Write a sequence for this structure.
């Protein structure tokens, strides 16, 4: 019913306009006015409107600037981000001046030089001096912009320092997983063919290769199971289903050959690099330390995603088949930022910023920046391997020598790959004590409470 | 010269015309004027569709999760259950909106309409070099449009990986439904579109080189023709690269090759593709994609140069500098594509080279802007709707152009890449400028196309609603982007989890944007009404309504095959002798011989 009414209104509206136009045309005919003859009244009216529009446009822009201008993301929370913001503001000032100047000239002249009876236009086909000016002046301004921009870009993309902590961010539809490089600050090798439920990040060790081979051969939909099914004459299969299974089998047979090659070539001395890596569960908060440089290594499992940290002014695509890298140094802790923004519920975030599927807009990871002393506790808690260095760090936190029982607890709770990777057991098995999972809803920066305090 | 022979040949049978049948006149026409009109009609229809699609997703962005009769009316229960847009259709709408606007409206529609109409008329040619290829070009364009529209109606939905269709997302139906049949149709449609575009462009280039009338030196051509010429060259050099990108993508999808795919596990399915690179696609795509911006923009700039000069009754300022800047923009547009890829994992050093080349484009652009402003300065400006739209174009070209300086700077691009800041930037500088140029062209050359006049008052109303709507939509959008909002997000509920203030701000702005978008869309009804009404009932046009210099206004109002009933006019001067001191009238058409003692400009 409502649709019908809308339809009727539209039809009537069109008819009304048609009648008005007819009326207008008849009156033009009576006054012998033709469409191409723009009356002085119309001309002046439009010239005035152009000026009025300029005022509206400038006014609107200023209002938007004042109301929404620089507030959106808050101050930059990383060292390079502050530099970016400085440069961004400088560039904004330049382009805002150009915007006002050129639009002002355009609309101003359009208003001023409206046709006036008896005044002929000024024949002015070219002027080399003027043209030189507006070629050279923009060139100089652009040169400044380019030099400052490239300087900043080189700093941002330069190799990170030796002290930088290496972190991997693994992306898939629709979530992020964090892997820290652990005690040796080296991320272990990986190969996507090793992915299975025990090893979601596909880390490469002698054990994971063997495990991948086993599950591809003997798993639920492994080669043997497929062969059995296809050869079993008692099972009726729809032709399409059979085709799918044959394709799947072919592919798996090719893949397993590659796995065997990998096994032969694998150098198990390198396993230690992976063993101390701290692997988190998908969606676990990323904890960072204030004033610590980080090198992020990005991986994608399925399609392109983009790791976008709006508050750190950092962004990098994650590309299947390729590791991309980016570095930054957080400079403001979550608590400090909350005070700055006067918003105790504020958090840093990592969003996906490259269309990756229907739930693209939900793909995010919470980020928390801690003071160094809090970070030290968290970092040791998640990466504890009971090495000499770790014992020392633990002693520092506890301010005494840790007892064997304490050391054992810490070792159990740590999330090193060695600890977490247990063939046959789901990875999600919770660690014995403490939790580093998502941020508590009440907005507390991190669950340090459960950690031993001095 | 070949051109002269061709003219002589045409002149020989230029006088007798036979009545054409309906089919050969309106359907399989080989006449450039009719083909131009066919392009225009198709593009107007495609433009309406794309605009409707944008209104649909704007409703979702302003009132996320609220049911709307409008959506359920158009999309039904499958794509908008209870009037709420589904996530997958949201992405489908965004993708098809972008594709249609960029390729079908602003490439096919703008260049197809006005290159076809104006190249022979302004050069003094009887028709295009090859009328037959021209006809094929239109029919391929129509076919590709139909396929693209059909893809909206299939069960798995249209292509939905964004108008850039980056693989692997666009290559894997397992990753998103739209990458199934919808994507296949997208690729088929685009491949046909490219063929159409190439046929058209080659035809334009050949015509411009060979069929200029006597006296029409390259340096006496109107700037419209220069713009169409460079546009056609850009198209010929860059569209084949897109075709190769599309074909390789098709191979990856259908033949199991690994051009773009490597080490992928989608869902729980482990693919064996190895060694390909998604970056290869991006390089190929943007090698077209950036010249494409100028394929869209240059014709609009060419049209507005002509219109501004005519209506300010002044020669365009710095004619040769204008040609130079068109050529410079055309050349530079081929070496800047990497600025779309600063953060894709491309080597940062290559990135810095692209920063340099990209920012260079600002120089010829600035020259163009200042030349326009100087043309208006001390003119005797007449505000026809076409003139208003041209001034609107210069304004949007400035406003959208300056934000390009931020985006071209890789160090700053990191902070705003793929946010709404980018969306606002390219909609203003490419979308609005080109659309304004197209409207300006339609208002200005409507008398030439249909022999009737558009209603001026409706034209005014249309212009004012459109420019207010356009700025109302895209100004606030910059601020959504500066607040960090990523594009192609179905809603911004994620902001609730980390910054509720930003969330509120974005919702406020999104409501403003959608309000203006709906306003602007309704404003287009005025144009549509004016357009179709005037085709049939508008007052009859006179031969040279705008007192313009170029040759198309020396042809009779009634269209005839071959354009001029008698001999083709000869050209004696440049096209911008407006208000020349010593002349009686304030315009001297190009075919008027130089007076004794008169110097060419």
């Amino acid at each position: 019913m409502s649709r019908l009414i809308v339809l009727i209104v539209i039809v009537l509206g069109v008819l009304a306009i048609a009648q008005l136009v007819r009326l207008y045309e008849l009156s033009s005919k009576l006054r012998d006015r033709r469409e191409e003859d723009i009356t002085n009244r119309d001309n002046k009216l439009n010239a005035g409107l152009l000026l009025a529009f300029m005022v509206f446009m400038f006014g609107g822009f200023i209002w938007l600037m004042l109301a929404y201008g620089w507030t959106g993301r808050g101050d930059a929370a990383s060292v390079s981000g502050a530099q970016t913001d400085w440069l961004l503001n400088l560039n904004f000032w330049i382009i805002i001046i150009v915007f006002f100047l050129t639009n002002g000239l355009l609309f101003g002249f359009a208003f001023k030089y409206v046709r006036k009876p008896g005044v002929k236009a000024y024949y002015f086909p070219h002027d080399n001096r003027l043209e030189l000016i507006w070629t050279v002046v923009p060139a100089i301004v652009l040169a400044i912009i380019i030099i400052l921009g490239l300087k900043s870009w080189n700093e941002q993309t330069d190799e990170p320092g030796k002290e930088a902590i290496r972190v991997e961010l693994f992306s898939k539809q629709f979530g992020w997983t964090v892997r820290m490089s652990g005690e040796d600050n080296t991320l272990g090798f990986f190969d996507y063919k090793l992915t299975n439920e025990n090893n979601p990040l596909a880390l490469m060790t002698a054990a994971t290769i063997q495990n991948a081979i086993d599950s591809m051969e003997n798993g639920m939909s492994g080669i043997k199971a497929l062969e059995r099914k296809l050869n079993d004459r008692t099972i009726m299969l729809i032709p399409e289903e059979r085709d799918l299974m044959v394709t799947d089998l072919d592919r798996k047979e090719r893949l397993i050959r590659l796995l065997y090659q990998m096994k032969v070539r694998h150098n198990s001395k390198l396993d230690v690099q992976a063993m101390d890596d701290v692997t988190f569960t998908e969606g676990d908060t990323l904890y960072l330390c204030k004033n610590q440089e980080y090198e992020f290594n990005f991986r994608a499992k399925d399609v392109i995603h983009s790791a976008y940290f709006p508050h750190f002014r950092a962004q990098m695509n994650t590309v299947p088949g390729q590791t991309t890298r980016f570095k930054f140094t957080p400079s403001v802790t979550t608590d400090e930022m909350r005070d700055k923004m006067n918003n105790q519920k504020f958090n840093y975030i990592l969003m996906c910023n490259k269309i990756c599927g229907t739930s693209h807009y939900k793909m995010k990871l919470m980020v928390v920046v801690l003071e160094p002393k809090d970070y030290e506790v968290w970092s040791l808690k998640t990466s504890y391997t009971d090495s000499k260095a770790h014992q020392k760090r633990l002693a520092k936190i506890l301010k005494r020598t840790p007892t064997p029982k304490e050391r054992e607890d810490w070792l159990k709770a740590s999330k090193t790959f060695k600890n977490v990777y247990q063939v046959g057991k789901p990875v999600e098995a919770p660690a014995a004590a403490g939790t580093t999972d998502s941020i508590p809803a009440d907005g507390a920066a991190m669950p340090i409470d459960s950690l031993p305090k001095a | 010269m070949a051109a002269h022979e061709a003219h002589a040949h045409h002149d020989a049978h230029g006088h007798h015309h036979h009545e054409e049948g309906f089919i050969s006149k309106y359907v399989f026409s080989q006449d450039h004027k009719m083909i131009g009109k066919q392009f225009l009609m198709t593009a107007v229809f495609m433009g309406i569709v794309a605009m409707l699609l944008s209104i649909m997703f704007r409703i979702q962005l302003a009132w996320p999760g609220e049911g709307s009769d409008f959506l359920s009316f158009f999309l039904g229960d499958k794509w908008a259950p209870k009037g709420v847009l589904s996530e997958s259709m949201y992405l489908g709408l965004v993708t098809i909106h972008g594709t249609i606007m960029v390729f079908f409206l602003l490439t096919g529609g703008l260049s197809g309409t006005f290159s076809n109409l104006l190249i022979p008329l302004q050069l003094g040619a009887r028709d295009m070099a090859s009328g037959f290829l021209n006809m094929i070009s239109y029919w391929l364009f129509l076919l590709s449009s139909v396929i693209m529209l059909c893809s909206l109606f299939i069960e798995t939905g249209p292509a939905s990986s964004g108008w850039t269709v980056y693989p692997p997302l666009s290559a894997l139906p397992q990753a998103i439904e739209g990458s199934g049949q919808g994507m296949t149709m997208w690729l088929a449609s685009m491949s046909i579109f490219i063929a159409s575009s190439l046929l058209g462009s080659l035809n334009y280039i050949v015509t411009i080189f060979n069929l200029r009338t006597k006296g029409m030196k390259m340096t006496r051509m109107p700037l419209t023709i220069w713009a169409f010429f460079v546009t056609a060259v850009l198209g010929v050099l860059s569209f084949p690269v897109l075709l190769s990108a599309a074909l390789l993508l098709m191979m990856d999808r259908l033949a199991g090759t690994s051009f773009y795919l490597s080490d992928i596990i989608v869902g729980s399915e482990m693919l064996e593709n190895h060694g390909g690179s998604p970056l290869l696609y991006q390089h190929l795509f943007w090698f077209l994609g950036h010249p494409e911006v100028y394929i869209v923009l240059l014709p609009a700039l060419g049209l507005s140069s002509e219109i501004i000069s005519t209506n300010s009754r002044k020669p365009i300022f710095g004619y040769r500098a204008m040609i130079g800047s068109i050529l410079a923009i055309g050349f530079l547009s081929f070496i800047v594509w990497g600025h779309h890829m600063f953060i894709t994992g491309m080597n940062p050093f290559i990135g810095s080279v692209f920063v340099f080349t990209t920012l260079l484009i600002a120089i010829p652009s600035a020259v163009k802007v200042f030349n326009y402003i100087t043309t208006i300065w001390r003119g005797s400006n007449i505000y026809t709707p076409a003139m208003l739209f041209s001034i609107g174009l210069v304004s949007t070209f400035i406003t959208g152009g300056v934000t390009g300086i931020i985006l071209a700077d890789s160090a700053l691009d990191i902070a705003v890449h793929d946010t709404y800041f980018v969306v606002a930037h390219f909609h203003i500088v490419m979308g609005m400028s080109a659309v304004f140029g197209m409207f300006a062209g339609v208002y200005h050359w409507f008398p030439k196309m249909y022999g009737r006049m558009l209603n001026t008052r409706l034209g005014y109303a249309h212009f004012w609603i459109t420019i207010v709507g356009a700025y109302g939509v895209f100004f606030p959008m910059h601020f959504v982007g500066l607040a960090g909002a990523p594009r192609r997000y179905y809603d911004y509920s994620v902001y609730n989890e980390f910054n509720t203030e930003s969330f509120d701000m974005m919702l406020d702005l999104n409501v403003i944007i959608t309000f203006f978008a709906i306003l602007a869309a309704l404003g287009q009804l005025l144009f549509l009404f004016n357009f179709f009404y005037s085709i049939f009932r508008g007052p009859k046009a006179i031969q040279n309504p705008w007192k313009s210099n170029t040759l198309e206004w020396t042809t009779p109002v009634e269209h005839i095959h071959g354009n001029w009933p008698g001999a083709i006019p000869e050209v004696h001067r440049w096209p911008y002798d407006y208000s020349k001191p010593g002349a009686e009238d304030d315009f001297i058409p190009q075919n008027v011989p130089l007076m004794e003692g008169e110097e060419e400009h």
Remarks:
- Chain B touches chain A through 139 residues (CB under 8 Å).
